[in-house]
Structures are given as structure tokens and as C-alpha cells.
Amino acid sequence: MYKRICLIFVFICLIGASCTQSIQESDIHWVTLKDIARSLENQPVMNVGFDVDDTVLFSSPGYYYGQQKFSPGSNAYILEKEFWDEMNNGLDRFSIPKECARKLIEIHKKRGDSIYFITARTGTESESVTEVLASTFGLKNPNKVIFTGFKIGENLKVEPIKENKIQIFYGDADSDIKAAQAAGIRAIRIKRARNSTSRPLPKNGILGEEVLVNSEY
Questions:
Q1: 27, 35, 51, 113: which one is catalytic?
Q2: Which pLDDT band, with edges at 50, 70 and 90, does 11 fall under?
Q3: Which of 7, 28, 149, 171 has the greatest number of beta carbons closer than 10 A?
Q4: 51 is catalytic
Q5: Eight-class DSSP state of 151
Q6: Are 100 and 125 spatial neighbours (Cβ–Cβ below 8 Å)?
Q7: Residue 36: which of 135, 142, 111, 140 has the closest Cα?
Q8: Which residue among 53, 172, 174, 176 is the active-site one?
Q9: In which band, very low, low, confident or very high, does the pLDDT at 21 lie, cut at 50, 70 and 90?
Q10: In the chain, where are the structural domains located?
Q11: What is the mean pLDDT of residues 96-120?
């Protein structure tokens, strides 16, 4: 039981933010969609990466369902294989695409950039997430979603970012920003919706990253 509680705590820390640091709104490096598009002008096509949950999809309905079914009142459900089998194979029909993600992906599609999705969800033998994202965002011949899972003391997104030569990574969690920074690439924070089941909410800009305005929806 102690081991399971530790794992849950670490997972929450990975997707959440530091509780001891703070930052003033005026100190945040805010960027707009126009700023991002302008920064890409005259740049060659590139590989870009997106986190999935709370970055391109508001997927809290599926996680809420999983908690109620597998571990009411606790986050132990994230350790259940049965939950991930359901989450990765159908529960995204209840996920809501984020409008900021639609617009960002359109910017990169028009440029001809190759788009990758890297998620800390636990991988399963089958998955429909790739199909959902391709259909939702109009992606032809999409790259398969990369499922890294999570591991104590390690940020498992760093290697796939490097291996796929990704040059910009968008994500809502501190772990996303840290992965991009560790890989030496541009990190852009997508704001997490306030009603997300993933708590605590991150402190946007705390790691010196760019933060996309109005990106909570």
C-alpha cells in the first residue's frame, strides 16, 4: 500500500507544479498565436511535439469516470491496467478538443511540419488515441502516439523528443516543459483548464518558458 501511495504522489507531482514557488503575471513570458506564427516565418519545416491530456484534449471526463469506477475518492485508478485499456480505447470520445490546439496545429500543418504526440499515459496493447487525434485535427498519415508512461525520478519524454528530432514541444505540465528544456528545445506552455481533474494546477511561467495566452480552452 505504501508503495502505491508513493507512486500516486510522484505522478501527481510530475503532472502538477511546484507548491513552493510563485511568479507574478507580469513576469510571465506570454506569447500569442500570432507571435508563434511570426517566429516560424522563414524557418524550414520541422518536427513539433504536443502532449495530449490538457494540451490538445480536455480529457478530464475519462479520468473522472475512471476514478469513480476503479478507486472512488483516490487516485489509485491510474495504476490500474483496466483503466488504461478503457482510456486508450474509447474514453476519448468524451474528450473535448482544445481550441488553442486546433489553431496551433493548423499553423504547423500549413507549414508542412511533422506533428508528434507524446503522452505520459500508460501504453496498452491497442489504442484509438492516434485515430481520435488524426480525425479531430485533420491529420493525414499521422505519426503513432508515443506512450511513455511514468517512472519515479525520471522524465520519460526526453528521449522520444530527442529521438524524433522535435524542435518545439507544447505541454501543460511542468514535466512537459522540463522535458523540452532537458532536450535543449523550445518549450511552450499550454494553460490547463481550471476544471481539470489533474491537480494541483501548474504555475504557468515558473520555469521561464513561454506561455500561450488564452490557452486554457
A1: 51
A2: very low
A3: 171
A4: yes
A5: B
A6: no
A7: 111
A8: 53
A9: low
A10: 2-17+25-61+96-212
A11: 98
